[in-house]
Specification:
Elements lengths: L6 E6 L9 H18 L3 E4 L13 H11 L4 E8 L5 H14 L4 E6 L6 H6 L10 H13 L16 E4 L4 H8 L2 E5 L11 H11 L11 E9 L3 H21 L18 H12 L1 E4 L1 H15 L3 E5 L5 H15 L5
Parallel strand pairs: 1-2, 1-9, 2-3, 3-4, 4-5, 5-6, 6-7, 7-8, 7-9
Helix pairs in contact: 1-2, 1-11, 3-5, 6-7, 8-9
């Protein structure tokens, strides 16, 4: 399937950068949403993180409202709202309000991840057991959105908002049973065998039950992607976030992004260096022809209906250039 037949979207986590403020990070998210619309991207999504020094995006519904107000055509959504942190009725009300204000433009992506630390989970009034309620919370949320719950969520959504499940572990099976679209990303995309993307998505498609939201299976593949004039330039674009992610897994804190140094990541401790290389290996980056080939292989392997591009860069000009180059790869080719 040519890339021009695949919907292309962006997810921005509102990463902060060393030396700039969180308010500036949020303003850049809105600027990027406007640019994504101009470039022809299909969706622009924001995420939910709490108490993370390197991420300013903690309130996706609020940020969605701001992005929708600054754009006119592009779909705006969450990637995602973490159900363990919220009452399903409140999520339904927020979503339906956004849909009423911006008809036909709002998406709802939900996940089951918990707060990163015990202190964050305590502040959110959730425990580790909250993730186990995801299936029940999702069913309640869908009942509110469809108008079949004992309490009528207002404004009424009438199942107008497409619902996506960010799949981790059992999330794929939950999405299939509920008849929802699935978003799959991370190392599983490049992993062979029964835990790899091909096998997981085959199971999703086999077990899918049609619903009011999706009559048939719908797969969104999420991957870090960077396009530049050279492969090394694209790699350096992804390095700051890969380094921050490695720090979070070794030191327990995702820090603000810093520019990649000339010797980075060779100067990092061994474990962090390995994690950085693993992160880069689970991405698609390079020149335009290299990225086109990599994404075509990814789509062929997963049967994806859409591609959701993730990854934050320290170099904002280079990120904007990458967004532009990537959009060009998905534009219909002249006959």
């Amino acid at each position: 399937m040519p890339l021009s037949d695949i919907a292309l979207s962006l997810l921005d986590r509102a990463a902060t950068r060393r030396g700039s403020t969180e308010a500036e990070a949020l303003a850049r998210v809105l600027d990027r949403a406007q640019r994504a619309e101009e470039l022809g991207y299909h969706r622009f999504w924001v995420a939910e993180h709490h108490g993370v020094p390197g991420i300013a995006g903690s309130a996706p519904a609020v940020l969605m409202a701001a992005a929708a107000a600054r754009t006119r055509r592009i779909r705006i959504g969450s990637g995602g709202i973490m159900l363990p942190n919220h009452q399903p009725l409140v999520v339904a009300e927020q979503t339906a309000t956004l849909q009423a204000l911006h008809p036909g433009r709002i998406d709802l992506g939900v996940g089951r991840s918990l707060g990163f630390t015990g202190a964050v989970r305590d502040a959110l009034r959730t425990g580790k057991e909250a993730a186990a309620r995801f299936g029940d919370d999702l069913a309640e949320l869908l009942a509110h959105l469809s108008g079949t719950a004992p309490v009528t969520a207002r404004p009424r959504d009438h199942a107008a908002t497409p619902v996506f499940v960010l799949a981790t572990g059992a999330g794929v099976d939950v999405a299939a049973r509920a008849g929802l679209a699935v978003v799959l990303g991370g190392p599983a995309l490049f992993r062979p065998g029964p835990e790899g993307a091909a096998a997981v998505l085959e199971r999703y498609r086999e077990r899918f039950r049609p619903s009011s939201w999706w009559p048939e299976p719908h797969v969104v593949v999420s991957a870090n992607v960077a396009v530049a004039g050279t492969r090394e330039a694209a790699r350096r674009l992804l390095l700051p976030e890969a380094r921050a992610l490695a720090a979070s897994r070794t030191r327990g804190e995702f820090p603000p992004l810093e520019p990649a140094g000339p010797a980075d990541p060779e100067v990092l401790p061994d474990r962090e260096r390995r994690l950085v290389e693993e992160s880069l290996a689970a991405s698609v980056h390079g020149t335009a022809p290299e990225v086109r080939a990599g994404l075509e292989q990814l789509v062929a392997r997963t049967g994806a209906d859409e591609l959701l591009v993730t990854g934050g860069a320290h170099d904002l000009a280079a990120q904007a250039d990458s967004d532009r180059r990537l959009a060009a790869l998905f534009a219909p080719r002249p006959h």
